[in-house]
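User: Predict structure, ligand calcium ion.
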Amino acid sequence: MINSPLMTVMVDAVRKAARGLKRDFGEVENLQVSRKGPGNFVSIADKRAEAVLREALMKARPGYSLIMEEGGSIEGSDKTHTWHVDPLDGTTNFLHGIPHFCISVGLEREGVIVAGVIYDPIKDELFIAERGQGAFLNNRRLRVSARRDLADALVLYGSPYLGRGNHPRLLKELGTVMAVTGGVRRQGSAALDLAYVACGRADLYWERDLQSWDMAAGLIMVREAGGFATSADGGPDALAAHSVACGNELLHRDLIALLKKANQ
Ligand code: 2AM
Ligand code: CA
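Assistant: Predicted complex:
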């Protein structure tokens, strides 16, 4: 476990916001049958969770900057620390009543992600990581999978929304990866995809067109679990590249080679 004051701040903030989100998810399930659907309600739930996170983090660490999915950026007086906050990652799942979404909070210190918390309130799974202290799921130490063969590997990926990203490119990459791996899944939450690689449930994951709040917490989760996380092109800075590829050292190298081949 990690018992630092920083982790306490992050976990408390995330758990507090999760209570509202879980309650709202129950309501979304009821709204599925209405013709207009629960779209507007979900956007309110999302903003409410973000407000809870913003307030808790700003109170505990005044001066830190915030980059948030809904509210944009808040520039703090402390130029060295930035929170990257996604109050609801897996919005499409949430909207459709699919119980696979999370809250994701990462902390950046001078360009380096130093801590991350990802919480799935439906499964009550809390993933935490702090630099040099390992990654944990509900107190259990995490390790990426030890698989060595692509043919056995379960691969997660994400596809861009309608009107966003490069769909033909994704289809080429997916075709190349599908042809040689054990199975592919599109689960709909980037933060949980990273967490699932960190805990060895999945062997590999890649996605493009992501933002810092989707990835920050998950990147440190994978690295502290002994995995490799780079941009989808194999570069060191996933955040700057807005893309990610991760897994254990061996399979990660294979995935980067496959993605390169798909783009030739
Ligand atoms: P969201 O649920 O907060 O929108 C799905 O592929 C995952 O990628 C989700 O975590 C989703 O976050 C995130 N994502 C971010 N930008 C995206 C985009 N342009 N298209 C699809 N997914 C995106
Ligand atoms: Ca997101």
